[in-house]
Amino acid sequence: MSRFVQLQTIPDVYRFFGLEDAVQHPLICIVDFSAVKEHVPEHLYVSSVYYTLIFKQYRHHAIRYGRRPVDFQDGSLICMAPGQALEMDPDAEASENKGWGLFFHPDLVRISSLGNRMQEFSFFSYEVAEALHLSEKERQALYDCIRKIGAELEENIDLHSQAIMVATIELLLQYCQRFYGRQFITRKSSDHAVVTQVEQILQHYFKTVAISDKGLPTVKYLAGQVHLSPGYLSDLLRKQTGKTAQDHIHFYLIEEAKNILLGTDKPVGEIAYTLGFEYPQYFNKLFKQKTGMTPLAFRGGN
């Protein structure tokens, strides 16, 4: 039977990993996984109220997402936003675990400039199977940030402590952003196949689906078709084509709208409904935004 655990406090984090409760700060902690000796119970799902970054090296598969195992043998980084859940796999030998975990509460960064920019780090919405695979140099860059945060936690908290830790977290996240950019480049050939697949899915959808009944395809729908998370798919497409998944959907929508405008004499309102818009003004606005003219002007100019 599955069991669900939510980590609500820093002491919860320490207790979950079977470590001595040695809280140094109420909103942030670092876990050294080489010190974790306890085995994880079977069928355990773990969630937390923290932003979580986990770098681990396993000899065996040890974490699953959506029942798909993730191979951490070479060392990978996963990033979780508050509320995301992982299924922990008990097959890994605890004595063979290496790596670190950084847990920080949204309140730590909320009033800083980083708090306003957290949504920019879209890798927090990726699935675990889309983990960041790191080179030795990249691992060291991230670990240097972890060491600096750890050293700050060892000091007595003063007026500068939080600002220094938040600045270091931001540096770490910037490194993650850079390294994911590198990963998209090194996976360019396989990612190109995803781009082609997305285009084929959209072409088929607009040719065969009654959009007025089923609605426009969503980013979540596209991501499910290519077995990726919505965030990862959008970032992949942006790196490969300069356009997000939503941009691709809109491109095929506008192309279909152009075909209907020039191939029929249907009123614009009826066309808008056929294309899944409840209100024609939304269709008009999107069409003008993408083409520079209204639907009627496009029809009249051709």
From TrEMBL:
Gene Ontology MF term list: DNA-binding transcription factor activity; sequence-specific DNA binding
Claim: Transcription is one of the keywords in the record: yes
Highest taxon above the source species: Bacteria
Keyword terms, alphabetized: DNA-binding, Transcription, Transcription regulation
Gene3D superfamilies in alphabetical order: Homeodomain-like (1.10.10.60)
HTH araC/xylS-type domain ranges (all copies): 199-301
Name listed for the protein in its UniProt record: AraC family transcriptional regulator
